[in-house]
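Please go through this chain and its backbone structure tokens and walk me through the local backbone shapes. Keep your notes short.
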Amino acid sequence: MSTSTTTHSGTDTRRSRPGVTLVVVLLGVLVVPMSISGAAVALPDIGRDLNTSGAPLMWVVNVYNLLFAAITLVAGSLSDLYGRRRVFVLGGGLFAAGSLASALAPHILLLDLARAVAGIGAAGVLASSGAILATTFDGPARTRAFAAMGTVIGVGIAFGPTLSGWLVGSLGWRAGFLFHVVVLVAVLFGSAAIAESRAGERPRVDTPGVVTFVLGLALVMIGLVQGPESGWAHPLIVAALVLGLAVLGVFVAVERRSDHSVLDLTLIRNRRYTAWCVATLVTSIGFMGTLTFLPTYFQGASGATATGAGATMLLMTVPVLVAPQVGGWLITRGCPAPHLMGLALLLIAAGSAWLTVLRPGIGSLELLGPLALIGIGMGVSFGITDGQAMSQVEPERAGMAAGFLNTVRGGAEALVLAIFGSLLVSLIQSRVGSGHLAEEIAAGNLSGGERGVLAEHFTSAWHVLLWAVAAMCVLGAALVFTMLAPRRAARAASSRAASPRP
């Protein structure tokens, strides 16, 4: 007769199958970044099919990112209370339903609403995934599991556009969303192999915290995402930012007084855990803009085809297949995690600075070095950040910790895209003197004047941004390394303890 056993963190081990659990979780995680990068590729076809453009079309991507970032922390905390497997399954179900509705949507408004549902489901999948791995594996096995998770996230980001481009070109834009449905249905069937786990204590849900966090973060992100298009001085943008920050202030006040908070503020005061959150933030700054906007530069300034631009980006994305596993292997062999994370961010910085060789018509051989360095840096970061962050917190708060980490990651990626694109247009406009022409150039359309001159303006703007990204990564590496370094007092105490007594 089989018996059920439960750990101190509330883990039901009756059906614990770590190998199958890892495969199922990784499949679920794979679809989350693919749904971000893949949907962006389908936008032109969606616009033509549904006869739409501008903000309604862009919200196909933005609303997914926004809801994903806003709900992830809540989903992580709820998984601690109600069960990590339960939230994983519920998130996967919502994600599949939203993707199916996206594939069938006859109007852009319905498509945007469906993508909002998918974003909420994706938050549940990713937040609970980290908690499931943290409570299923220990020691070196946990490091390897999170390294595999980092690899899968990198694969989704890197190859989502390629797969989606093939599906869109061969079967139409709806096929991309249907592909996600198929994978998620397989994930839901496989979730039966995942053992349930939850926190030992189950206080009531922090409803005021949930409402104020989601509302405040959503308002701030709407303002930051829509600001570049509507103008930062637009009354609605200013109102969204001011009101959002005020609501987040209320959230902090509520959490300080709550004995069952959705975000235990002591988690943020955990210096080492927060350092790994900062590390994932800096990593997003280092690669997200380049990954998303560089293919447009190749097509606009160099006249490359979409296929050719995608092939060139493989120089950056292929290393992501290997580097996370290498990073995890180095950690298990005793390499200090702070040193490895600092090295990863410095590699991204060096690659970004080196990429200022960028010019119209540049060949792939000259781009190999800088793009590979960025790819290796992002891959190493993907492979170690989640595992190291989760190792800083007790199992009872695994869902909350994973949720907050992925909130930082998802919010950073969405904001980097908005701010990078806005700065690119502004820098080009300062050179060409026309906002409309600058937007056309940033979108890869250089037909509004002498092509060679416009390409040079496009290139100059890219150089400024690349140097800025490199500088922020260097500063970020120094900050993360400092936060992860042992306290001087702790080192002194350790030294005194190790000294022989007279």
About this structure: The radius of gyration is 23 Å.
